[in-house]
Specification:
Blueprint: H1 7-13, H2 16-22, E1 44-45, E2 68-69, H3 75-79, H4 84-100, E3 105-106, H5 130-145, E4 150-156, E5 169-171, H6 174-181, H7 183-192, E6 196-199, E7 203-204, E8 207-208, H8 213-223, E9 229-232, H9 240-246, H10 258-268, H11 274-291, H12 303-317, E10 319-323, E11 336-341, E12 359-360, H13 366-373, E13 378-383, H14 396-406, E14 409-415, H15 434-446, E15 450-455, E16 471-474, H16 482-490, E17 523-525, H17 534-539, E18 557-567, E19 574-583, E20 589-599, E21 610-619, E22 624-632, H18 633-636, E23 638-640, E24 645-647, E25 651-660, E26 663-672, H19 687-692, H20 696-705, H21 716-722, H22 727-734, H23 741-750
Parallel strand pairs: 1-3, 2-12, 3-4, 4-6, 5-7, 5-17, 6-9, 11-13, 11-14, 14-15, 15-16
Antiparallel strand pairs: 7-8, 10-16, 18-19, 19-22, 20-21, 20-25, 23-24, 25-26
Helix pairs in contact: 2-10, 2-11, 4-5, 4-12, 5-7, 12-16, 13-16, 14-15
Bound molecules: alpha-D-glucopyranose (GLC).
Alpha-D-glucopyranose (GLC) binds at residues 46, 107, 154, 233-234, 355.
């Protein structure tokens, strides 16, 4: 239940100075209140995978001093679950803990596209693909907001690196922005209706995101009908007047009155209308109203239940990259010995650094969880193998090697040490620390049955070492309950069902952003355009370490009998498809069915195929189920800067369903009809385009026929010579013999014509 507040009444009562005061923070995490009018201060705080509420008793600020909260798996893990329902539940739990702490807005989810695997915050983001980012981000938003707490989708937009993040200009062409870097935000705004969006630090094509009218007003509000509040990233505003003019509503944190004073002066000087401030204040009051909790009691947080959910989410997110000889799952009741090697088994790394850091209520470790689940005949040993500090500790390696030699199976826990992945800096490479790789090689020399468990946020390069292991389980930075989840997966109590939401390249150099990351001289050129991640590797037919969408299971699935039908055409076109999925293996499991679309022939270049739908299906062994999905015009369209809109071109489309972007099980081709996209005619349009236009063509022929002594309209050979000429050039050539009055009037009218 929300408390209604009299927004019109408050707007009428607020002074200019009070309005300006409301448009920037009171302090680090609270908005300004206006006590005179009963306008409360509300709290906005992090973060995407757990509540990071500054401990008010802390003497000074630190990302590590916050109130205890549940640390769920990071977005890199959650993104690998491909599970919309799960993420809605995680969002609801995040909202419940936020509400209990009287937090009005939780600053997440982070959904920036993983343009480069080196980005230091990739652990906080969901995918290299906008469909996953959009659908899973929307699920988190719906979950959080179901509790009456606002979400804040971040960082809008093109914040794909940490290097120079507060100044760098992301130079991105419009089509790439629309199809890749904005599409996830668009899906969330138009389907989950977040109550806030967070404007990013960086510039987009030279203009700071927090002051970018095209982003914050034309795209976000005019195109997507966003009706919430835009808050800046902390310290992202350099010019509060430009920010409010562009459509920013709340600058955080406090500027100690500085920005308010600038806004008041600007109104008085006529550099900004008071109505612009009113617009922003109204959005803040609307947010206060939306997040105002009724008198109902705040649910007491069930941290035990949240921990169980965190463990389930971590298990659903892990990706089984390889499993030769079906070495996994291990039988906990078998008479065998298992050497657990690697400090991460005892001291887990389960989140990254920076503003998303959570003071976890409790932390499982895999070693204890394995011991708790092991049967009476299973003997476990533990060897740290390496020091977390990365320092050489010579005794650790031989100790681990002898433990491996004495055991039936060696389970080696590897990963990225604390501090390698954090807000504020990017990574330099994709490799695991040398000390860990030396350990793995030494263990593999004495034991053939090696399992590697990984803990990392952004992907690591695996090709150079995975031959040493029969199985590799990518656990990600999987939250406070990750240790228990890994034990569940290793012992088969959970069946791996995560899928890669980010390609693992063979080599860093193969990544399409490699020559343009992180940019120079304050700009970073997105030279790869729309070819991000698998879109690039597939376009170049490059081998990869493991492909986007990849992940094994302890069972197997078969796809059969794909049928499609096309209804309607153009914007009304719908492709309906169904096929049968069967669990052909020995145990129950979940398959992530992926639907890819390829435009067979198009007037512009397009990726070979793009993910357009997915669903996670659970099946008992031997069971089958029909799987149905629909693709609409937008799923088949590309963004056309010339038309300034999404365009569906008639023709054939390959529809594929599969278990990864490189494991397409069934493909069929459908033909979709659509009228040719009409380009708005201008004087720079070609004569050919004018003649093809149903209205412009006859008008131009008529105009040309009136040119004195001209065979222009009559003689097709002459017309064919000038057809490839912009009309403006023809007009110049014909000169004053051409009466362009009708054309001018037509152009004035067509600016109002629907494109
Ligand atoms: C940080 C981050 C943002 C976070 C905010 C508040 O700099 O970029 O993700 O929500 O500031 O901590």
């Amino acid at each position: 239940m929300h408390e209604e507040i009299d927004i019109p009444g408050l707007m009428a009562a607020l002074t200019l100075e009070e309005k300006a005061t409301l448009l920037s923070g009171r302090d680090g995490w609270g908005t300004a209140g206006i006590e005179r009018l009963g306008i409360p201060s509300i709290t906005l705080t992090d973060g995407p995978h757990g509540l990071r509420m500054q401990d008010p008793r802390a003497a000074s600020f630190s990302f590590d001093v916050s109130l205890p909260a549940t640390c769920f798996p990071t977005a890199a893990a959650l993104g690998s679950s491909w599970d919309v329902d799960l993420l809605t539940r995680v969002g609801a739990a995040l909202g419940a803990e936020s509400r209990a702490a009287d937090v009005a807005v939780l600053l997440g989810p982070g959904i920036n596209i993983k343009r480069s695997p080196l980005c230091g915050r990739n652990f906080e983001y969901l995918s290299e693909d906008p469909v996953i980012s959009g659908r899973l981000g929307a699920a988190l938003v719906r979950g959080v907001q179901s509790t009456g707490v606002g979400a804040s989708v971040k960082h809008f937009a093109a914040n794909n690196q940490e290097t120079d993040r507060m100044r760098v200009s992301a130079e991105v062409d419009v089509r790439t922005l629309r199809e890749i870097y904005l599409a996830g935000f668009e899906h969330i705004v138009t389907t989950a209706k977040p109550w806030t969006m967070m404007a990013a630090y960086n510039r987009v094509n030279g203009v700071y995101a927090a002051q970018n009218g095209w982003l914050l007003t034309e795209v976000l509000r005019d195109d997507w009908a966003f009706d919430g509040l835009v808050v800046s990233d902390w310290g992202a505003v350099t010019d509060p007047v430009a920010a409010v003019t562009a459509g920013l509503d709340l600058e955080m944190p406090s500027t100690n009155g500085g920005s308010a004073a600038q806004l008041v002066d600007a109104v008085k000087a006529g550099r900004i209308e008071e109505a612009d401030l009113d617009r922003a204040v109204t959005r803040l009051l609307t947010l206060i109203e939306r997040t105002a909790q009724g008198s109902g009691p705040v649910e007491k947080v069930d941290f035990a239940q949240h921990h169980t959910l965190a463990r389930r989410a971590a298990a659903e997110s892990a990706v089984l990259l390889k499993n030769d000889d079906a070495i996994l799952p291990l039988d906990p009741d078998a008479r065998m010995s298992v050497a657990v090697i690697g400090e991460f088994a005892r001291t887990p790394t389960f989140q990254g650094g920076g503003s998303s850091r959570v003071n976890a209520v409790q932390v499982d470790n895999a070693l204890d969880a394995l011991a708790a689940a092991a049967g009476e005949h299973l003997r476990l040993s533990f060897s740290p193998g390496f020091a977390l500090s990365g320092e050489e500790e010579p005794a650790l390696l031989p100790e681990a090697v002898s433990a491996a030699e004495a055991a039936d199976v060696a389970v080696v826990f590897l990963g990225l040490p604390e501090g390698m992945e954090s807000e504020g800096h990017d990574r330099e490479h994709l490799d695991l620390p040398d000390v860990q790789l030396r350990l793995l090689e030494a263990v593999a020399r004495v034991n053939r049955d090696v399992v590697v468990v990984l803990a990392n946020g952004g992907v690591v390069q695996v090709t150079s070492w995975e031959r040493h292991a029969k199985a590799v389980l990518e656990g990600w930075l999987n939250g406070q309950a990750g240790g228990g989840a890994i034990a569940d997966l290793l012992f088969g109590r959970a069946n791996p069902c995560g899928r890669l939401a980010e390609t693992i390249p063979l080599r860093l150099q193969d990544n399409p952003s490699h020559l343009n990351f992180p940019g120079t001289d304050g700009t970073v050129l997105y030279g790869e355009r729309i070819y991000v991640g698998y879109r690039y590797y597939d376009a170049k037919d490059l081998p990869v370490g493991h492909p986007f969408g990849h992940g094994l299971s302890y069972t197997t699935f078969a796809y059969s009998d794909l049928r499609t039908e096309v209804d309607g055409e153009g914007e009304e076109a719908v492709v309906r498809a169904r096929f049968t999925l069967t669990n052909t293996g020995p145990v129950a499991g979940k398959e992530v069915v992926q639907v890819y679309v390829g435009d067979v022939a198009c007037s512009v270049d397009r990726p070979v195929r793009e993910l357009k739908a997915f669903t996670k299906v659970e099946l008992a062994p031997g069971r089958s189920t029909p799987v149905e999905f629909e693709l609409r015009a937008r799923d088949l369209s590309f963004f056309s800067p010339a038309h300034d809109r999404w365009v569906l071109e008639a023709g054939d489309f390959d529809i594929s369903v599969g278990a990864s972007s490189r494991d397409l099980r069934l493909t069929t081709t459908v033909t979709v009809a659509a009228p040719p996209p009409v380009l708005p005619l201008t004087l720079e349009s070609l004569v050919r385009e004018w003649l093809a236009d149903p209205i412009g063509g006859p008008l131009l022929r008529q105009t040309l026929s009136r040119v004195r002594g001209s065979a222009l309209a009559a003689d097709p050979t002459i017309l064919s010579m000038v057809e490839s000429m912009p009309l403006s050039r023809l007009i110049t050539m014909v000169g004053d013999r051409l009466d362009t009055g009708d054309i001018t009037r037509f152009l004035e009218q067509t600016t109002a014509r629907e494109p």
